[in-house]
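Blinded run. Sample ID left blank on purpose so nobody reads anything into the name before looking at the predicted structure. Input follows.
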Amino acid sequence: MFKMSLTKRYIPAVALIALFVIITHLLNTQTINSNKEYAKIINISGEQRMLSQRLIILGMEYTSTHTKESKYKLLNTIVKLEENHKYLLTKKLTKKITHIYEIENLNSELNNYILNFKKLISTDETTYLETATKNSYKLLLKLNSIVQEYEIYASSQLEKMSEYEAYLTLLTLFVIVVEILLIFRPTAIQIEQNKKLIEEKEEYESAVIESNNNAIIAIDWTSKITTYNKKAEELFGWSKDEMLGKRYLLNIVPPKYKSAHEEASKKYLNSGVSCGVLGRGHELEAIKKDGTIFPIYITFGNVEYKPQNAIVIASMYDLTDKKNSENELTDLNENLEEKVKVQTLELMNNLDIMSQHIIYSKTDVHGIITEVSKAFCEISGYTEGELIGKSHNILRHPDMPASIFKGLWKSIKSNKEWNGEVKNLKKDGSYYWVNASILPEFNNEAELKGYVAIRQDITAQKDHEQQTLKLIESEKMASMGEMIGNIAHQWRQPLNAISMTATNLQMDIVMDDVNRDEFAKELELIGSYAQHLSQTIDIFRDFIKGEKKYKELVIQDEIKQALSISSSTLSNAQITLIDNIDYKNDIKLTMTSGELPQVIINIITNAMDALLDNNILNAKIEINLIKIDNRAVITIEDNAGGIPESILPKIFEPYFTTKHKNDGTGLGLHMSYQIINNSLNGKLYALNTSKGAKFVIELDLDN
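Blinded prediction complete.
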């Protein structure tokens, strides 16, 4: 059974393994593609759910502002929601999904929902927004059911594929074990026996070759070196590890013989014709690893030629001592003039190479160009004839200020080297940048004869720098937009308070019920609100500039400032503010004035909105301040019922908001988080209590 050749044994075994590998690959590919497809469907369905709610927010923004920007955002969201809906209508993967779309009328409800917003844009009638808002919760439940159904379906399909992979893996392991026992193990035994015979033969041949006083090198039909003895290591300097098994025979052939050697080798290996060198001795040259070229006497031999199995063996020894004796007299009579010609030619070649690759020029003492390199001509676009006799002003770019060149001439006229970056003008009107070094050149009598300039092309680097600067400016503008949004959010509470206070004063005047003391007190409040608005601008200006004006402040005073701004609004909303702050024992902290009040106002405003949205009777907001070791802890707690656990981790993220009726932007809590955690190096977090939501501000007093 096992007398067949190794190839015949391995072919079916390898083919079977390859088959299982292909099947596994196809299954993995299908699994990956399915994962991508299901992930896409789930993402789009989730986005559809989010967009349906975002339309409410954008609709409110549009009805309150009627700006082109709000209209544009609303239209974009409508288009995106319609695209997602059309795509998901082609992916009714289960009966339940089909039932929700067709029987439960999700398709028509969503189309009607979108239609309300289109009519809102075309008519500006707020009744369409009210209708959409009324139906949004019912629609959200169905969209949520769609997302869940897609997730369930994707999970079930992926579990099936995982089972198929497991079965295929077990089957593959079984086949491999069978092949090892029935094919590979018997073959390995046979290979081991053959290997032992070959090793015994190689040991004998190696002993004969290694004991030879000549360098022995052999190659196979592919030109790989198969034999390389110790004498060869001594003669050429290349070790066995560096030469054996590699096509490195050219390493010992001098450059002038390489072409002839390669041609003769190819002819012999392809045809078996030896070009008359085999079986004879020859005086040639070889090259050592260190680059030394030396004479050798070499004899070539081979076994009987066989197609694709030719073997050439070379035996050689060093002729250096002999040749040195023969050439000693010749060396004494070498023509000195010939040596000079050779060295001159080498020098000219080196200068030509430099001219092609180095951007340099020479001028006389007046700055008139006397010599330019080929590289200089290539980068500038001018010919040598167009540059010689001209000054470098021919290349001067209008962007370069005159002061640069004044400093340049001042340095080189003082016999100092000048270094700098210069923007030059090409002949075709374009530009290029160089990093230039200009230094004086002297003659043999140490007299100044001109200047030498060597340059490096840095155009790509400068273009990259310009692109980077443009990107930074774009990022600054985007950051500025976000800052403006933050300022608008921070102004909402004080502006509401100013509006309400002014309305109360106006009503007192209309009702002829003006109390001078109360009137003065209300005006004082309006002044404090206005001061807070101004302070908000200062805070954000410092954010933009990256500047902070720190000083030691009393935390209770900062809290009191925030409560004075919020108290009127809370009172009008019939919300009780429970102030448990101890104003007698000052707690001091080095910080920026106005930042802590901004945070407290933001938190109180969010608590007030939650109490009003949930129609809480006997609504309360309680604020406390305690000192624990080296920390000041401020807590603000409401009785609005708390924050849903699903969104609690997200409330400090930028633009995250759950407000629909109050035009929330999602910037207030995010900005508060930035102030406490980054500016004040504290901690801001929220948790739910038995009453409602509690926001905790921890400030390190030793910071």
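Unblinding after everyone has recorded impressions. The first strand starts at residue 215 and ends at 219.
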